[in-house]
User: Fold MmcQ/YjbR family DNA-binding protein from Roseobacter cerasinus.
Amino acid sequence: MTRPEFDDLCAVQPGAVLSGPGELDAWKIGGKMFACFGHTDQRATNDDHVVVRCADTEMARMLIESGAAGKPAYFRGAWVRLDLPTLDPEEAKHRVAVSYTTIRGGLTKTAQAALPPLPEEC
Assistant:
């Protein structure tokens, strides 16, 4: 999977916006990040992995321990690192959906009401 392909999965989420470029490129919903690409320095980007949120820390731990995901450098808890070159497109779609809905679900009711509605399958 490439960075543009992953960006396409994020872009179709209702109300998702890409912030950056800068120190971090992040996909956000309601001002909260659900996917993040980090830069190694001001001149180079590191687009071979992305960090996403799992529904809970137990799932994140299981994905890391099984080798399906990696431990992200600067994130703790329910966040995992996905390596794009080896990431299956269906798994990527699922991970984006979980991260997006988890972050969206944590927004205030007022913030959620201001967003476009979720599709029926979410």
